[in-house]
Design a protein that fits this description.
It is built from 5 helices and no strands. It is mostly helical and about 100 residues long. The protein has 2 domains: about 50 residues, no CATH class; about 45 residues, no CATH class. The two termini are about 50 Å apart.
Length: about 100
């Protein structure tokens, strides 16, 4: 999914880069107003639809964007069994 987004972004950059000189020649300075308008619209979309991440830890970030909360998932791990297994492993190793 990410690779498709990157590929489409590259294709869009190539299309805009190829079209810009002819658009500038035909429309003149209006070209810059056009791109300014696109950026303004995108800023509004980001402001209203992208969640605020200030103060959110990296572990909670995935849950904010629809994934699992890794902190809550980590609390479900049985730490006693993990430590017990490690101590048994250390006891069986010869030093």
């Amino acid at each position: 999914m990410v690779l498709q987004w990157v590929r489409r972004r590259k294709e869009l950059i190539i299309i805009i880069g190829q079209a810009f000189p002819s658009f500038l020649k035909r429309a003149g300075f209006f070209t810059f107003y056009f791109f300014m308008g696109i950026n303004f619209i995108l800023a509004i979309i980001v402001y209203f639809f992208v969640p605020e991440t200030k103060g959110v830890s990296l572990e909670h970030m995935d849950a904010l964007f629809g994934g699992i909360d890794h902190v809550a998932a980590g609390e479900k791990v049985d730490h006693d069994a993990t430590f017990e297994g490690q101590s048994q492993l250390r006891g069986s190793q010869k030093v």
